[in-house]
Amino acid sequence: MFDLLSDFPRDPSGGSAISIQDDAKGEVHVKGLSQCVVNNEEEALNHLFEGEQRKTTASTSMNENSSRSHSVYTVYVESKARAESTEKIIVSKLHLVDLAGNERTKKLELASRMKEANYINKSLSFLEQVVVSSCDNKKDHVPYRQSKLTNLLKNAVGGNC
Fold this sequence. Notes:
The protein has helices at 41-54, 111-135, 148-152, 154-157; strands spanning 19-22, 28-31, 57-58, 66-67, 71-79, 90-98. The relative contact order is 0.12. The chain is 30% helix and 19% strand. The protein contains four helices and six strands, in the order ββαββββααα. It is globular.
């Protein structure tokens, strides 16, 4: 996992100071991830575009500018009544998810692309398993912890969404 908004360079060994943790209430938190406070849509979009520019892409035989990873842009929205009141502040969390496409490994020429494609396909398969399991009332277990992506999106897929 990489923080696409961080000014620190990525660890070339693939290690990361970012970790996903659940709190006592079952909420998912990502430790070590940058959070930017914005005051309007333009500022939020600028961060979205900045992250998009830093996302890993590469050329494949099927796509000249293929995304080589998934990305998640999480927006927290706080709202309260315009008039002064004792009403609570409502906090909402919105995940904008860009999934890397399913790759046909037979059409890939480079071994490095094959490895990436296998990771992409595996994570998409895990996401499918979570969605199917969460929709099946007969299942008592949903395998959220199979991947970082499904664990991160746990509450968006099957929680209070």
